[in-house]
Design a protein that fits this description.
With 215 residues, the chain is mainly α. The chain is built from 9 helices and no strands. The protein is 77% helix and 0% strand. Helix 1 runs antiparallel to helix 2.
Length: 215
């Protein structure tokens, strides 16, 4: 993010969007390159595909209700179970695949980055005993409801707001507050109610089919 803002200052008011997309691609490609080089069993690939499908099903049927979806819940639970790398890949793929039904556009890479970072950071932070702290996870999910929205607000401001000033960014971010709050509330409620049974189910499946070592 710091590199993006520094580049915007150097551009002096020109080509913000093109530069931001360049940074975005540079952020996504290394993760997919490493994923491509990783040795994985067929069972793990199938399990990952099922997780992505569940994330898509958590978004597409609820598309008529702004920012109310279960995709973020699936991203967070799968990242805790699969780890940060597969958390990033599964989260970004949920955005790409669900937009095949909802519509692709310049917002798609930003959604891929946002859900990918949600999976990556969750997989990095929630290890060991933190996996069992439901209320910390509820707070984490609520925070990501706002962080996700801010990443998309950044794209909106770069694409449509002129001139770009501090007040312009503030108005763009403030205008989406209610939608971000809906996302945060959905994450918090779904994690509070569904996290424990979903995590236990995923652990059983992974142990039964020897997808990953038990842990």
């Amino acid at each position: 993010m710091g590199g993006l803002l520094a580049g915007m200052l150097l551009l002096k008011g020109k080509h913000y969007l093109a530069f931001s997309f360049g940074c975005l691609i540079c952020s996504l490609l290394p993760a997919y390159w490493h994923f491509e080089k990783r040795q994985m069993t067929t069972r793990l690939l199938v399990f990952l595909a099922v997780i992505v499908a569940l994330g898509v099903l958590g978004r597409v049927p609820l598309a008529a209700i702004p920012n109310v979806q279960l995709t973020s819940f699936v991203v967070i639970v799968s990242a805790i179970t699969l780890g940060p790398e597969l958390g990033f890949v599964s989260g970004s793929m949920m955005a790409l695949v669900s937009n095949l039904f909802l519509g692709q556009g310049p917002w798609t890479p930003w959604q891929m980055l946002a859900w990918g970072l949600m999976g990556l950071t969750t997989g990095l932070i929630y290890r060991g005993k933190l996996k069992d702290s439901v209320w910390l996870l509820v707070i984490w999910g609520a925070l990501w409801g706002f962080w996700f929205g801010w990443i998309l607000d950044l794209w909106y401001a770069l694409a449509y707001v002129r001139p770009l000033r501090g007040t312009s960014f503030f108005v763009a971010f403030a205008g989406s507050f209610m939608f971000d709050a809906l996302h945060a509330a959905t994450n918090a409620v779904s994690l509070a109610i569904l996290y424990r049974p979903w995590r236990q189910l995923m652990k059983r499946l992974m142990t039964k089919y020897q997808i990953l070592p038990k842990g």
